[in-house]
Design brief:
Blueprint: E1 2-7, E2 13-14, H1 35-42, H2 63-79, E3 92-93, E4 96-97, H3 103-115, H4 120-137, E5 157-162, E6 168-173, H5 180-187, H6 190-208, E7 221-226, H7 236-249, E8 254-262, H8 264-269, H9 279-283, E9 285-289, H10 293-297, E10 328-332, E11 337-345, E12 350-357, E13 362-370, E14 378-386, E15 393-398, E16 403-410, E17 418-430
Parallel strand pairs: 6-7, 7-8, 8-9
Antiparallel strand pairs: 1-17, 2-11, 3-4, 5-6, 10-17, 11-16, 12-15, 12-17, 13-14, 13-16
Helix pairs in contact: 2-3, 2-4, 3-4, 6-7
Amino acid sequence: MMDTALEEASSPMLNQKTPIHDTPQASPKPYKKGFVATLMEAATLKSTPSFKEDSYFVSNLRSSEKKALQELKDKIPSLFSSENGASSEAPSMWGISLLGGDDRADVILLKFLRARDFRVNEALIMLLNCLTWRKEFGTETILEEDLGFKELEGVIAYMQGYDREGHPVCYNAYGMFKDKEMYERFFGDEEKLKKFLRWRIQVLERGIKLLNFKPGGINSLIQVTDLKDMPRRELRVASKHILSLFQDNYPEMVALKIFINVPWYFSMLYSMFTPFLTQRTKSKFVISKEGNAAETLYKFIRPEDIPVQYGGLNRPSDLQNGPPKAASEFTVKGGERVNIQIEGIDAGASITWDIMVGGWDLEYSAEFVPNAEGSYNIAVEKPRKILGHEEAIHNSFTSKEAGKMVLSVDNTVSRKKKVAAYRYVVRKCNNI
């Protein structure tokens, strides 16, 4: 026997229903903010309209904005002219020359203008300072460096997948630094802190490399920050450095900031900060309290791209097999039991599946039901309670006879609706 094809079975039924697919739906003056203050600001944004990313089409700009862009473009060449004693090397960022009329350069310049509310001189100063910093920091070669942070890859800060609109997603979680030994290893002195900051910039540059820098293209990232177990006091210095570097040198690079596992006390203090926020700043923040990570992330990111620890189906090992297989999404209402029926499984075929219900705390089981009359159903996974912190289930089964697989999730003891997702692959085997 051998595998001859990878085939999906016919569309499964969820209580005879088609799976539900959720469809996701002027710059502030710059000033320095502490990390805690930034998160408290975020807590004000529960009902704020979603951020609308700039298209970067010059034709869509107001006349005053077009004028500001042209004025900035006119000022740059003279500052890099050898006649003025300056370097004659043409300024560039991310491999894009800021001179010569490239529309990708317009995208970058508009980011700096937007960050300074289209005040040309302030945007120019910010741009020049950023160019100086990038040269001194060595950002053009940073992706080639091995900084020795292998154990932090995929744990502390990492790029993984895309949102529903195609933005690269960067995940951040600093909970492991609550361990004093870990904290000392990476932040124990100034040299260690500098090395960590360099690694953090490397992660960001890795994400920026995925951007289009084209009008109408994908020109910013999504950031997901997990606040669970985050040691606020210990990371205060590192956080301020990270925020300062990002704020000064990566303007308008983030389209959305999603905070998950947010402690209750940030919400208690949010009203104090509302008067100091612009509508644009508010619209970039999304807040999810502890236990609601999956429900929040599903609105913006497909489940196959969300890490399993946050209610998704994506495991690090999946990336070795190319793009993740698409998942089907559905909801489990309070008081409801949902049966997912995967039919068309031939004798000798094997089926592999992943299933996740955000926040679980319900009963799950898997059963193979043969087509032949008189055959016995096989309990592949006996009914068991899945706790809220558990990750997606990954399992497989090889059938001896034709039939269907039934995955059951029982939410009858709860009144809370939950988001869920599953995917499967059937491998048919033929005798040869």
